[in-house]
Amino acid sequence: MSAAPTCQNCGAALTRTLVDLGIQPLSNAYVRLQNAGVPDKVYPLHARVCDVCLLVQVDRVVPPDEIFTEDYAYFSSYSESWLAHCRAYVKMAIDRFDLGANSNLVEIASNDGYLLQYVVAAGVPCLGVEPSANVAAAARDKGIPTEVAFFGEATARRLVAEGRAADLLVSNNVLAHVPDIKDFVAGVRIMLKPQGVYSVEFPHLLNLIEQVQFDTIYHEHFTYLSVLAIERIFSTHGVRIFDIEEVPTHGGSLRVFACLEDANYETSPNVARIRGKEVAAELDRPSGYSGFARRVDKVRADLLSFLDSAKKDGKRVAGYGAAAKGNTLFNYCGIAPAQIAFVADRSAAKQGRLLPGSRIPVRAPDAIAEERPDYVFIVPWNIRDEIVSQLSEIRGWGGRFVTAIPELAVD
Questions:
Q1: For 402-406, what is the mean pLDDT?
Q2: Alpha-carbon distances of 390 from 322, 344, 393, rounded to whole Å
Q3: 223 with 49: CB under 8 angstroms?
Q4: Which of 115, 171, 320, 330 could form a disulfide with 358 if both were Cys (CB 3.0 to 4.6 A apart)?
């Protein structure tokens, strides 16, 4: 019998399961048509809870360089609502932290320059650090200085030696992607100037559990974060949380502001308020994580029942948004092209490929109007309203929208 995996933060044995989603391919490993006959590489997708430090994490079974490759298919700039969120964030950050021509803003995992484009436009010096070469090239094409590197202690020391210490260090939806969270936070401490600020956004574990957002669990997301867990990790490295905001992105996220322990930032009451919400939900004890798998199973059963009924009634179902979360959902449910004919997506990097595992084809958005499906299954439920607005024409032929999270909804 193999030994239990150990916590990437504290090293304790991981014996408690949040949910086991079976054997799955990498959620961003979209399949080129010429490779359609090549089986997917698959790995266990098992989320566990550390009984000691309460960090929720998946088993580390995939090397990071197999995930963040030169052919990484996720580009951040295809969601208008996400770009609006980033534009507003940049304005707020520049005003709040008085950033100007003599400042330095560094973004970790800067992707295709979705956020830094607004920093450049504001005249604030900046640098992106991005591990995937193809999306880094897209940022450079926009005139955004970008280095191809994984961020951690070694990268931070090199950048600081080059004079790139940060007045504001940003990592939006990145901390969960880190395979070695201790090394990452050690790098954060090194990168910050004495009064520098670390700004990090991540989907809130509290919402994941309460809203059954299990489709956000995939190999690329190594951890699932609460304030209770990250406070422990940050404090070990001399980093202090001084403010928290709740933001609506990705089904409900936290925007955390942190600094070095002795920096001159007063701690906002928001920190105790959010911590209190987690304690009220019993996320401060291992027993608070029980029962999640049963609720996940109900989502699967309800979705499969709907798809079976639609097929029996001769109705066609298409998807919209080839998001990684959909691949977790489709593969856990065992969904195939016979149930969802295709998924439309705005990203040219995904069009003409097949979803990993399910092998559902990805087409351009105009396929919806061409095929006139009876139902459009919205994969990225977190931007449902944006998609409904974009596809309002389906109402003209009697089409309806479907979502599965947190429970099946057809309208």
A1: 97
A2: 15, 12, 8
A3: no
A4: 330
What average pLDDT does the chain have?
Answer: 94
Q: What is the pLDDT of residues 242-298, one digit of tens each?
A: 999 999 888 899 999 999 999 999 999 999 999 999 999 999 999 899 999 999 999
Domains of the chain: 150-289 (3.40.50.150), 299-410 (3.40.50.720)
Structure tokens at 241: 């949380």
Q: How far apart are CA 19 and CA 44, in angstroms?
A: 11
Cα(411)–Cα(402) distance, rounded to whole angstroms? 7
CA dihedral 84→87→89→92, nearest 10 degrees, is: -130
Residue-level pLDDT at 63: 76
Indicate whether 69 pLDDT > 70. Answer: no
The owner of tokens 């790139």 is 164
Report the candidate in 231, 144, 239 with the shortest Cα–Cα distance to residue 191. Answer: 239
Q: Hunting for tokens 């599965």 — which residue is that?
A: 404
- Give 137-147 pLDDT, tens digit per residue: 999 999 999 99
Whether 114 and 51 have beta carbons less than 8 Å apart is answered as no
What does the alpha-carbon distance between residue 367 and residue 354 come to, in Å, rounded to a whole number?
Answer: 15
Please tell me whether residue 398 adopts helix, strand or coil conformation: coil
Q: What are phi and psi of 289, to 5 degrees?
A: -100, 5
Cα 110 to Cα 145: distance, rounded to the nearest angstrom: 10
What are the DSSP calls for 113-130, one per residue? STTHHHHHHTT--EEEEE
Residues found in the chain: 411
Q: How would DSSP label each residue in 172-210?
A: ET-GGG-S-HHHHHHHHHHHEEEEEEEEEEEEBHHHHHH
Cβ atoms of 116 and 148 within 8 Å: the answer is: no
